[in-house]
């Protein structure tokens, strides 16, 4: 797709550079997406069906590192195999 993605067990949980280098995406559970979008204006659901399934845009210049780290960790845990 011409942008870097991050995977665990073959599942994408985050990407960089779409639609341009100022944006990333994390794949969150619905309740996590609602929480991040409500609490931090740097997050917004991706438009359409992907967004309804948890794909969440992140404006990288607007998010602080601890908040981004929490979002990436949540996305990773959702995609990682259960033990």
For the report, how would you describe the main beta sheet? 5 strands, antiparallel
Globular, elongated, flat, extended or rod-shaped: what is the shape?
globular
How many H/I helices? 3
Rg calculated over all Cα atoms: 12 Å
Number of self-contained structural domains: 1
Number of E-type strands: 5
Strand residue percentage: 25-35%
Strand order of the largest sheet: 1-2-3-5-4
In whole angstroms, the N-to-C terminal distance is 31 Å
Contiguous uncertain segments of 5+ residues: none
Order of helices and strands: EEEHEHEH
Could you say which structural class the secondary elements and strand pairing correspond to? alpha+beta
* Mean pLDDT over all positions: 95
Question: Which range best describes the helical content: under 10%, 10-25%, 25-40%, 40-55%, 55-70% or over 70%?
Answer: 25-40%
Summary tags:
3 helices; 28% strand; alpha+beta; five-stranded antiparallel sheet; 83 residues; single chain
What does this structure look like?
It is a single chain. With 83 residues, the chain is of the alpha+beta class. The protein has one domain (5-79). The chain is built from three helices and five strands. It has helices at 30-39, 49-52, 65-79, and strands spanning 5-8, 11-16, 23-27, 43-45, 55-59. Strands 1-2-3-5-4 form a five-stranded antiparallel beta sheet. Strand 2 and strand 3 form a beta hairpin. The longest helix has 15 residues, at 65-79. It is globular. The protein starts with a strand and ends with a helix.
